[in-house]
From TrEMBL:
It holds the Pfam family FMN_dh. Belongs to the FMN-dependent alpha-hydroxy acid dehydrogenase family. This is (S)-2-hydroxy-acid oxidase. One of its GO terms (biological process) is hydrogen peroxide biosynthetic process. The active site is at 257 (proton acceptor). It comes from Sorghum bicolor. Keywords: Flavoprotein, FMN, Oxidoreductase, Peroxisome. Residues 1-362 form the FMN hydroxy acid dehydrogenase domain. The keyword Oxidoreductase applies. It is found in: Peroxisome. One of its GO terms (cellular component) is peroxisome. Glyoxylate binds at residues 27, 132, 167, 257, 260. It is an enzyme of class 1 (oxidoreductase).
Length: 364
């Protein structure tokens, strides 16, 4: 049985494609417009090489790290992705259990297809809650309150989706809006949209519920209604990273939404050093997008990331083999990171340095 298990993320992707209806696979896998950014997120990792150091005793590798004071066995955490029931009927509950089994953090999406309460009670884990700002602030405030009272440890405000990116596969497939189970205040709208004709219903739902007027003032507002730490997800420039620090957030997540929003935004790994430099160590910088290998994680750490988030790989695992698949994907990435660290002569995350990578800009 073990022999037939996929041995890497790409094999899980192939299984996911076989397992899912085309509409669902395309929704998970796709990106915006020409999908340049989607491809580049992955391709840019391929242009960074590793500079291993040898003759270092690597019989013990310690991948542990901490984020906002929480200890984790490795710097790999689960990115917020919507509608896990499209991948597996158990949805986010299965993903949460997989993350908990790996003692890692799961960021639960605003667009979760399981109720927040159900996910919170399904297992013991450190969870962050991801928020999109709704046009109706009372709906956002109610979600924040629920997340707080259910023991979520931080809020992740996604800021790169004031409007929905144009995902052509979803438009072609007439992608149906997954049920927005946590948005009681908007349920009647959900019904109207489900019965609407044509186009991507997801796009229509987003247009009605998300707030394109989202601005730095709303970060202030969010701070005023919660005592939880806030991370901003979707920052990709030094300018905005500096503003985020000024706004008093607890962390910056460098992300281009997995290439699903603005096409021709740079690969996240290409923007990492700029953003890390801008925050000057004042808050942790996380990065996501295109991570498919443990060596990718090592590259991100070397360029200054405190931790990384993985989106699609976990969904591939979930689609292919449910909770066990999602768990296996996280475990595989952890094992790959451990191996890459050993082969680079890094015994701990702290020992991974800029000198372990060679980028195009280094001119070597
Ligand atoms: C996402 N992403 C996302 N981000 C977010 O803040 N809230 C969300 O609800 C979602 N939903 C979502 C659905 C699907 C199917 C995907 C693939 C992505 C973006 C996600 O958090 C993350 O930024 C990317 O997935 C990272 O890129 P990789 O790891 O998928 O390459």
């Amino acid at each position: 049985m073990e022999d037939s298990l996929p041995v890497n993320v790409r094999e899980y992707q192939k299984l996911a494609k076989k397992a899912l209806p085309k509409m669902h696979y395309d929704y998970i896998n796709g990106g915006a417009d020409d999908e340049y950014t989607l491809r580049e997120n992955i391709a840019a990792y391929g242009r960074i090489l590793l500079r291993p150091r040898v003759l270092i005793d690597v019989s013990k590798i310690d991948m542990s790290t901490s984020l906002l004071g929480y200890n984790m066995p490795s710097p790999i955490i689960v990115a917020p992705t919507g509608a896990h029931k499209l991948a597996n009927p158990e949805g986010e509950v299965a993903t949460a259990r997989a993350a908990a089994a790996c003692n890692t953090i799961m960021v639960l999406s605003f667009s979760s297809s399981c109720r927040i309460e159900e996910v919170a009670s399904s297992c013991d884990a450190i969870r962050f809650y991801q928020l999109y700002m709704c046009k109706r602030r009372d709906v956002s405030a109610a979600l924040v309150q629920r997340a707080e009272s259910l023991g979520f440890k931080a809020l992740v405000l996604t800021v790169d989706r004031p409007v929905l990116g144009r995902r052509e596969a979803d438009i072609r497939n007439k992608m149906i809006s997954p049920r927005f189970v946590n948005l009681e205040g908007l349920m009647s709208l959900d019904k109207d949209i489900d019965s609407a004709e044509g186009g991507s219903k997801l796009e229509r739902f987003s247009r009605e519920t998300l707030d394109p007027s989202l601005s730095w003032k709303d970060v202030e507002w969010l701070k005023s209604i919660t005592s939880l730490p806030i991370l901003l997800k979707g920052i990709i420039t030094a300018e905005d990273a500096r503003k985020a620090v000024e706004a008093g957030v607890s962390g910056v997540i460098l992300s281009n939404h997995g290439g699903r929003q603005l096409d021709y935004a740079p690969a996240t790994i290409s923007a990492l050093e700029e953003v890390v430099k801008a925050v000057e160590g004042s808050v942790p910088v996380l990065v996501d997008g295109g991570i498919r290998r443990g060596t990718d994680v090592l590259k991100a750490l070397a360029l200054g990331a405190k931790a990384v988030m993985v989106g699609r790989p976990v969904l591939y695992g979930l689609a292919a083999r449910g909770e066990a698949g999602a768990r296996h994907v996280i475990e595989m990435l952890n094992k790959e990171l451990e191996l890459a660290m050993a082969l680079c002569g890094c015994r701990s995350v702290a020992e991974v340095t800029r000198a372990h990578v060679q980028t195009e800009g280094d001119g070597i």
